[in-house]
């Protein structure tokens, strides 16, 4: 496979190749997906390759305190918490009681309860309560898309200079590229992408992710 023969199949094959060599999913991680599906959660977890990239960012950065907005079944949270040192902490927020229940079981099964605090409820309300805690080194935003601008602004209040914020789904299967699509989730993310690109408080880069989950992207932000 080369540039000349590039097509969608090539990109799927490449993602599987990267997964095979660099993003091994153990039985516990696979079981999260099985339990999530059985509980009726949407299959919108990170791909193993995306999750490994996030884990690498946490380790390279040396983050000790991580905030995740949107736990779902705890799949990404497990990868994140496993990247933490012994005294590190992941605080993960989930609004849906069903997802929160699956995620709680996940962290228990993974033996990560001491390192993970799951807070069920409205993320913005919860984040207000987190203002009095020490700042987070790393924030992963992966929840309700039309609320991304508020999640981002609140995350900015919960971090310190040098912290990293990563936002999932900033390409929306390519739909952010089409300005004619006015649905709030595409419009809000399109506007937020442009805003962050000019936000003097941060430096940022969008990293396209083409995986088993299709075309999307991470926005990787460093707070100045
Ligand atoms: C979808 C994917 C996601 O990663 C997410 O957080 C929400 C929705 C989707 O493909 O619909
Ligand atoms: Mg997502």
SSE arrangement, N to C: HHHEHEHEHEHEHEE
Task: Compute the number of structural domains.
Answer: 1
Radius of gyration equals 17 Å
CATH class: Alpha Beta
Number of helices: 8
User: Which small-molecule ligands are present, each listed once?
Assistant: 3,4-dihydroxybenzoic acid, magnesium ion
And the CATH topology?
A: Rossmann fold
Biggest sheet strand line-up = 3-2-1-4-5-7-6
Any key phrases for this structure?
alpha/beta, Rossmann fold, seven-stranded mixed β-sheet, 8 helices, globular, binds 3,4-dihydroxybenzoic acid, binds magnesium ion
Summarize the structure.
The protein is 42% helix and 23% strand.
Describe this structure in words.
This protein has 224 residues and is an alpha/beta fold. It has a single domain, classed as Rossmann fold, CATH 3.40.50. Helices cover 42% and strands 23% of the residues. It is built from eight helices and seven strands; from the N terminus they run H-H-H-E-H-E-H-E-H-E-H-E-H-E-E. The chain has a seven-stranded mixed beta sheet, sandwiched between helices. Strand 6 and strand 7 (214-223) form a beta hairpin. The mean pLDDT is 97. The structure holds 3,4-dihydroxybenzoic acid and magnesium ion (MG). Residues 44, 142, 168-169 line the site of 3,4-dihydroxybenzoic acid.
């Amino acid at each position: 496979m080369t540039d000349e023969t590039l097509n969608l199949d090539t990109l799927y094959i490449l993602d599987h190749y990267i997964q095979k060599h660099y993003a091994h999913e153990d039985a516990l991680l696979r079981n999260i997906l099985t339990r999530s599906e059985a509980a009726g959660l949407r299959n919108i977890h990170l791909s193993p390759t995306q999750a490994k990239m996030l884990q690498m960012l946490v380790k390279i950065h040396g983050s000790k305190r991580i905030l995740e907005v949107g736990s779902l079944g705890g799949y990404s949270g497990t990868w994140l918490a496993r990247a933490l040192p012994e005294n590190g902490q992941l605080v993960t927020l989930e609004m849906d009681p069903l997802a929160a229940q699956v995620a709680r079981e996940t962290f228990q099964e993974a033996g990560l309860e001491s390192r993970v605090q799951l807070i069920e409820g409205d993320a913005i309300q919860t984040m207000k309560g987190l203002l009095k805690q020490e700042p987070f080194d790393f924030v992963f935003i992966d929840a309700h898309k039309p609320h991304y601008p508020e999640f981002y602004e609140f995350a900015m209040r919960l971090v310190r200079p040098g912290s990293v914020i990563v936002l999932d789904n900033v390409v929306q299967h390519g739909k952010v590229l089409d300005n004619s699509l006015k649905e709030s989730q595409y419009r809000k993310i399109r506007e937020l992408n442009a805003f962050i690109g000019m936000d003097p408080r941060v430096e940022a880069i969008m990293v396209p992710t083409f995986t088993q989950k299709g075309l999307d992207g991470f926005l990787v932000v460093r707070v100045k």
